[in-house]
Amino acid sequence: MFCKLCRMSAFSCLIDSAAVSISKPKQCFPSGINGGNSFFGLHPKVSLSRSISFIKMRSILPKSRIYCTLEAAATSTSPKTFHGLCYVVGDNIDTDQIIPAEYLTLVPSNPDEYEKLGSYALIGLPSAYTTRFIEPNETKTKYSIVIAGDNFGCGSSREHAPVALGAAGAVAVVAESYARIFFRNSVATGEVYPLESEVRICEECKTGDTVTIVLGENKLINHSTGKEYRLRPIGDLGPVIDAGGIFAYARKTGMIPSQAA
């Protein structure tokens, strides 16, 4: 389902970020309904330098409850820790490389098609990436953490991109920066944590390194090199991703009715 005004996916339209900072402005795809380099007042590339402070719910809550602050849910530090092998990519990895358009007919809500979608994650990377994210004849990746450079997830809007990564077995992406739409779709679907590094980690890690992400301490540890890196806080979006996405979070917190058993 798509928004009639902006033609973005319904998931993307549910999240309207506030208090974001802009890093290295770049127009990566056509602008929104207002023209220029922004959509709903946001630049196509967002940074977590200032964590997003609230989520605006459209067409779900009564007008009196449109603004749903997440401060209460975010008061406790997330204890989550992710440990595994990393897969390293460079700058400007677009959604066509993450999941080519020919696979967008797969329906993520169908378990079989969800698994199949994951098997195609990052299949569009150029041949220069000699190590593939998913081995031939496999449906899951052995790399649970993707480390990327600048502008990860640029290109066309497709919520299948973070879904494909999650279906493949990835739990987090650590990038220097993100394209706005990929970042928002990652939060909306709850499939992967879109984390931002304070330095260019993609040039200091290599595919196959063993890493640990400690969300509560905002750090990534590369056990293969012994180096440790600071990550920018995920902030108020953590509870949304923890819940499994925007709709799951809204049901969990009572903002919309729970699904019938």
UniProtKB/TrEMBL annotation:
PANTHER family: 3-ISOPROPYLMALATE DEHYDRATASE SMALL SUBUNIT 1 (PTHR43345:SF2), 3-ISOPROPYLMALATE DEHYDRATASE SMALL SUBUNIT 2-RELATED-RELATED (PTHR43345). One of its GO terms (biological process) is amino acid biosynthetic process. It comes from Trapa natans (Water chestnut). This is 3-isopropylmalate dehydratase. It comes from the Eukaryota. Pfam families: Aconitase_C. It catalyses: (2R,3S)-3-isopropylmalate = (2S)-2-isopropylmalate. Residues 143-190 form the Aconitase A/isopropylmalate dehydratase small subunit swivel domain.
